[in-house]
Queue: 2 jobs
Job 1
Amino acid sequence: MTMPPPPPPRRSVSTLVIVLVVACSLLICAGLTAGGFALYFVLGSGSSTSTASEPTPSAVPTATGGGSTGGCVWAPADSDNSPRKVTTPTTVERRKMTATIVTNLGTITMDLYGDKAPCSVASLRSLAGQGYFDNTACHRVTTAADGLVILQCGDPSGAGTGGPGYQFAEENLPTGQAKPYPRGTVAMARTATPGTNGSQFFIVGADADLAPDYSVIGTVTGGMEFVDQVIAGGHGTEDEKPKVPVTLTRVTVS
């Protein structure tokens, strides 16, 4: 993070009065020419160290977070745990798209709602285009015994705490729907704090009774059997890492 240069120091009123009095005395005693030289010497060429400058805010980082595109605001992540450095999206296309996720188990395809969740889909497309998801393992699975059936992916660190270095707000929340997250839904994962969407997403394996706090970005159209295979394998007793490993070898969005 860089700091912008501080503003020029401001002189106090008392200092200015003293300087003017001295300058006038010199002008009267030494004449206009010599007085002009003395005035420049006393006032200086614009620099001073007599008064401390006011503090200035720090600059907003722009390398991996910050800025806006097409009405979407990319804010710097609260915790910049970015395992792979990427840039923020440069385009936002408000249209439906298709995602193709090639895994070690098989290919999963999705319809993405770029018309309803344009920022989320633009981010996913941008990250996929930069190879952010390539050769990354899905780090979390939960089953019916946990009260929630999902497969969660999108963190190259594999720890569930990583992101792209920027975050953005929720959109297309299923408020008021009887089944807010039916089987096959693709939604953005976030922390307990709103506005912390990043790169992680989850696929719903069975109708989920979740609060409508997670952006719905699409639906699985093919390869759901591979998701079911991972969910059926379950997870360990100490963590929620899948017992059936699944790796995203290539993700494309078009």
Job 2
Amino acid sequence: MKRYITALLVLLASVSASATEEGVLKPQAWNEMNEVIVQGDIPEIQGIATAPVLFTPEQPSTSVDTAALAVWAGGEGWSNLLLGGIVATIALFTLFTMINGSVKLDKGFSGVKIFRWSKADIIFHWVGALSCLGLLVTGIAIASGRFLFADMMGSHNWGNFIQSMVSSHNWMAFPFILGWAVMVLKWGSKQFPEKGDMAWFRALGGYINNGKGKHPDAGFANAGEKLWFWAFTLFGGVLVFSGLAMMFPELFGFDKGAMNWMLVLHMVGAGIVGVFAVVHIFMATLISEGGMEAMVTGYCDENWAKQHHNLWYKSLR
């Protein structure tokens, strides 16, 4: 009898040991870690480590600057400001165009063409311009979409939509950077202040039709174009720097506190460049007759040059 009891106890002990051994999580069977890039944030690690020693943060979370979070405040106010500013500018200039009409050439088109922009100028302008418009559209979708129509789309459709917007936004950043850099370097020498710039602003560029025939002096670039150029230079640079920092945080060595500030700067830059871009589009297409031709063909009409850039026209003679 004792032999049977002893054998039973040995059997139970072996079964228990086997179950215990099978229940131990073996390091070599653990899942690999995956690095997940979170848009606008530091890359995060998800998964189970392949080694018993887990990664430890290089610095404690208490050292991260959280001041930008108070400024950011969830993002809805910033996204509304971005979208609202651009929509308001479109509405304002649409109303202005309807009331004031376009500014016609006093003497009509002469048919005589004057060289103004090289083929390289035209190419890099449109590379920068089209990518800028694409970035504004996708950027507004990223910033405001979740507050406007994410609930209507459903989680699956919204996930696919926002991922495509983020990918498109990131890819379009590179032609924008190229166009921005070339235009700033190539055109900067023609954009410095001149004597008649303040008079141009006081006359509102001669674009108010009740003052028709009063066209202020302007060189190659008028005062309004110079203002747009330097805003594009400065705040386009803010967009480039903050955008690259958010895309490649490891190259800049930024922590999450600095990344939050980059997001704030990016929204500020986008709002200012977006508003100026809307004004620029209206001025070149609907408000100024003959204004678009030069950036399409490289040549402007002689009467357009005399009316809008008379000092530059005189310098050619």
